[in-house]
Design goal:
By secondary structure, the protein is mostly beta strands. It contains 1 helix and 11 strands, in the order αβββββββββββ.
Amino acid sequence: MSDNNNPFEAVAEPMSVPDANPPGIETMPMAAIAAEGVVAPMGEAPPAPAAPTEAPPAALGADAKPKLVVQRGLKINVEYPIYEGNNFIGRADEKPVDIDLDDQEPPDRVWSSRQHALIVFENGVLNLEDLNSANGTFVNRTRVYPGQKRALAVNDVVQVGTVQLKVKV
C-alpha cells in the first residue's frame, strides 16, 4: 500500500490459477457433450431435440356415436352428432357445413369462420384440424394450427370462435 492509505492504490498479490483438471474430476470430450445435446462443437449446428412422444389416441370403438355438446354459446347443451368421415364446422354459406354454429354466436360477435375446422372420424378415432380460420381453433385451450391434426378424446373441449363444445359419446 502507499503512504496515503488510498485503497485503490493497493497492490494486489498475483492470483494463482487452479489446475484446469483437479484430481477426481473427469472431463468429457466435446464430441460426447454434443452427442448428449448439451452443446455443439464450434461451427456445427446443435442436434435436433427429440420429438415429443404422444400417446396414440384411444379409439372410441366401431359402434361409438360421438357428438359435440355446447358448453358455451347462445344455446347451451345443443348436441351436434359427428358422423363417419369428414365433419366441417363453421357457419353455413355457399359451402355447407355439418356443424353449423351460426345460431351459437351473437350477430355482433361472430368469430367462427364459414369453414372453420374439420373433424375426421375414421376407425373409431376423432381428429381435428383448423382450416386456416381467422380466429383459430383450440382444444383444451391449446391452439391447433392449420395443417396440424389433433386427436380428440372424450371430454376434450373444442373452441371454435366464441363457442365451446365438449366431446361426448
